[in-house]
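Changelog note: in this version the structure field was regenerated for every chain. One regenerated record is shown below for reference.
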Amino acid sequence: MKPFLILKSVDEVLAEIDKLPCLPPTSKNLDEACGLRLAEDFFAPFDLPGFDRSTVDGYAARARDLFGASENSPAMLNCVGDCPMGRECGLCLEEGQAAGILTGGALPAGADCAVMIEYTRAASDGTIEVIRAAAPGGNIVYKDEDAARGQLVIPRGKLLRAQEIGILAAFGIEKATVTRQARVAIISSGDEIVPVNHEISIGKMHDVNSHTIAALCKSVGAIPTQHGIVRDDPGLLDEALARALPDNDVIVVSGGSSAGMRDHTASAFTSLPDSELLAHGVAIKPGKPFIFARTAGKCLLGLPGHVSSALVSARVFLLPLLARLQGRIEQEIQPSVPARLTRALASAQGRRDYIRCRLVKNPGASPEYDAVPLMAPSAVISGLVEADGLVVCPENSEGFAAGEVVQALLVS
């Protein structure tokens, strides 16, 4: 048996990932930028929306003219005209005057609020009754309320969601400068692995890992390429790495990452020119035989061959790596929900355990979910389908008691 190097903690490996430089920036059309990260701070080039506007249909008015207005004592205002949509209103309200306005219309000069039409009544000769008082700023958006000129609107490294795309569109931005998508080569290894379009026989199994890993890469905007299956032959693995390295930022090899006589991934990584082995073995379950190396600015990851171990390792290390390469600056909160364990979980101190669980909604209870641990072995695939959460047992814990409330990380 080839020995593992000294086991690193999960946090030590993640710290190494955070030291990596981001990939270079590129320009994307706005409609192609969702799911990517902004490569530079975006400052407001002008005030947004750029004019004071109404948020209701009704009347633009002066708040001081409506003081004390009520059903029994309405304020009487003289309507001096209407504010046109889509252009500046040329009116200037004076004491006791109002102007008709629609949602989104520009307020006339002198107005500092808008009154909903439901709180007005037509009187005679262009006079209206207002039955509710209003405060300055009521039912209006000020000209710089979305953003003032020069204000930081979206910081560098922010993931562009629909709402960020929307505010860029509001400023008339056609192209966004984003961090380039990571290119990921995926290699499966093992004499027992066959492609999914082959029939399996005793001792053989379909290649699951390359497809699950590719799906994970796509879920965070990376561009995966499957480079096929390599037999347990160090020379063949060396050749596969040589083919994958020139055109990719990350190489992921599943299988062969442990310390057995047929595990060649670590030695293949270290045989590359100017390579640096950052981790071989991590204090985690499942996924202990994880490998992290670097060569010529490229990242090399060795994942365990067992499907659940590979998937957990990929979630814990590959996804943060891709986020970092694709522009993440700060650590981000993973979505989770509080849940009550339905059974006790034991763990060994000094190791971080990730336990798959099924979340069951429990209406009326607090917390709202029960976490049902799925204790199938790491080679059992069906447990992956059942799991929609991961319970993390930290290194300084011996486990959780039944009924204890834990945070369950959500997995999609």
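Spot check on this record: The chain is about 15% helix and 30% strand. The chain has a mean pLDDT of 94.
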